């Protein structure tokens, strides 16, 4: 059939676009990577996720300010001996303020040292990223071997099982990635060069780091407020005769405690040892009832609340970390 068709001099015309038409259309497009812009025409892909996350962040902030901040303020006020009957001298009050100052300076110094270390690591990765990776892997192996040996000598051989498993996994990982270190070195140099030419990315990452630190403070206040609300009023003993109870809203009340007489509720019997034992059991039962007033079923609720609190912290920290990685990439 085809031979007969071509034998009859059949002409087949296939339309082709000219190069000039294609070039004119391609010239209208901007060069790639010259002025990149985000296309918002498709809308937010994770709109509901964004709404749920910011609603969760708002709940954390409100609970931290309403429940946690009054408790923290009350603890600071009573710890700094602003009670009228507290037998605390001015020297002890000044020492407490001095300790707070030392803690603030220590946190600031640790932040500065961490920033300088990160900056030095950034320049070190530009010079010899491959050697840094190799030294890091070798140091990790040496530390794990030392830990296994110390546990075997000082503790017991059973304590070496988990560190030994981690050591084996690390050795397997090291054997798999050792040949790919030069490839990773090239990528690290390219990434560091891009960050060096665009310093605004580092400023954005630093801003997100500050936001993450504020997030941790709000989360800590929320945990403090929730735990205080679940455990009931907190008792701060000022001295042997006075104590302070702090309720959920941070208000405090001062009351006087009287010591229990030695002969109070004495158990008379001809067997002194048995009487002391019974008296101790009765006292321990009353003592435990003060701290175990809630039923055992609330332990499940506490576990659920603790899991949700840890999930909240991980969700927020991981979200801000992903923002830094996305901006850097």
UniProtKB/TrEMBL annotation:
Location within or outside the cell: Cell membrane; Membrane
GO cellular component, one term: plasma membrane
InterPro entries given in the database record: Choline_transptr-like
Pfam families (alphabetical): Choline_transpo (PF04515)
A GO term for molecular function: transmembrane transporter activity
Protein family: Belongs to the CTL (choline transporter-like) family.
Job of this protein: Choline transporter.
Protein name: Choline transporter-like protein
Biological source species: Adineta steineri
